[in-house]
Amino acid sequence: MDEPWQEAIRESDFSAEASVRGHQMEVALSGTADFMMKGHLDRFLRALHAETQRRALTKVNVDVRRLEFMNSSCLNSFAWWISTVQDQPAEGRYRIVFLSSPTVYWQRRSLNALAGMAGDIISVQS
């Protein structure tokens, strides 16, 4: 059995937590992801991607239901992550499932745009 793994950002207005459960990664984001969080988010996503590949995980669930806002800089971080996964050989790719709130308009619009980048590996669930 693999050793436990956990990564987190804990700031006053934003948090991101990731951990491995079985053969998938569980990620939860909350608060406000603005330009001040971009560097933190970039490091978080790089670590998450590296660990997902190291363990050959097949799925990453990203729960954004408690994420109130994400600016374009942070959305670009997610675009980088998605394109990085998409550029991997087929055996190195994993699915990314966004769990979103149907009542938060920006999530529906922005996450569907991200899913449009790579519909073969991205899905959005409300």
Describe this entry's structure for a reader:
The chain has 126 residues and is of the alpha/beta class. The chain has a single domain (6-125), classed as Transcription Regulator spoIIAA. The protein has three helices and six strands, in the order βββαβαβαβ. Strands 1-2-3-4-5-6 form a six-stranded mixed beta sheet, covered by helices on one side. A hairpin with a 2-residue loop joins strand 2 (14-21) and strand 3 (24-33). Helix 1 packs parallel to helix 2 (72-86). It is globular and about 35 Å long. 24% of the residues are buried.
Task: Describe the secondary structure blueprint for this structure.
Elements: E1 6-10, E2 14-21, E3 24-33, H1 38-54, E4 59-70, H2 72-86, E5 95-99, H3 105-117, E6 122-125
Parallel strand pairs: 3-4, 4-5, 5-6
Antiparallel strand pairs: 1-2, 2-3
Helix pairs in contact: 1-2
Q: Give the overall average pLDDT.
A: 93
Characterize the biggest β-sheet. 6 strands, mixed
Cα Rg: 14 Å
Name of the CATH superfamily:
STAS domain
Helix share, percent: 25-40%
**SSE topology string:** EEEHEHEHE
Give the overall form. Answer: globular
β content, as a range? 25-35%
Low-confidence stretches: none
Domain tally: 1
CATH topology: Transcription Regulator spoIIAA
User: What is the top-level CATH class?
Assistant: Alpha Beta
Return the structural class: alpha/beta
Largest sheet, spatial ordering of strands? 1-2-3-4-5-6
State the end-to-end CA separation: 32 Å
Helical run tally: 3
Q: How many beta-strand runs?
A: 6
